[in-house]
Amino acid sequence: MSNEAKALEGIRKASGTEQGEYSIDEFVSHHIDELPRTYWEKHLNTESPSSEQVIGLLVLHSKWKDEEVYDFTLPDNVSGYVVRVSFDEEGHIKDFEMES
């Protein structure tokens, strides 16, 4: 499994936990509150998406060139925020952050 896939799986597992409180959970709740219902209807066929549905939409925004750090965001450039996942030297997830 690639580190990108590991990062997305880690995001899913962190959601709803203390580890995800100020990263993925904050990212999801912010975007559910701020984005218009038409965005959610376009991408998910619902006006009120679940956290799992929003997480399922995440796309890779960037990968840091010299480090194993991945930034994920929502499609269509609707956000200035990313969920950042960083790995340690052994290839284990080190941290989740919400960044602008």
Q: Are there runs of 5+ residues with pLDDT below 50, and where?
A: none
The number of helices is 4
Strand order of the largest sheet: 1-2-3-4
**Approximate helicity band:** 25-40%
Structural class, from helix and strand content? alpha+beta
From the spread of the alpha carbons, the general shape counts as globular
Radius of gyration, Cα only, in angstroms?
Answer: 13 Å
Element pattern in H and E: HHHHEEEE
- Counting structural domains, the number is 1
* Beta-strand proportion: 15-25%
Average pLDDT: 95
DSSP summary, beta strand count: 4
End-to-end C-alpha gap: 28 Å
Largest sheet: 4 strands, antiparallel
Characterization of this structure:
It is a single chain. This protein is α+β, with helices and mostly antiparallel strands. The chain has one domain (3-99). It is 38% helix and 23% strand. It has helices at residues 3-14, 24-34, 37-44, 51-57, and strands at 59-63, 69-73, 82-87, 93-99. The protein has a four-stranded antiparallel sheet with strand order 1-2-3-4, with helices on one face. Strand 3 and strand 4 (93-99) form a beta hairpin.
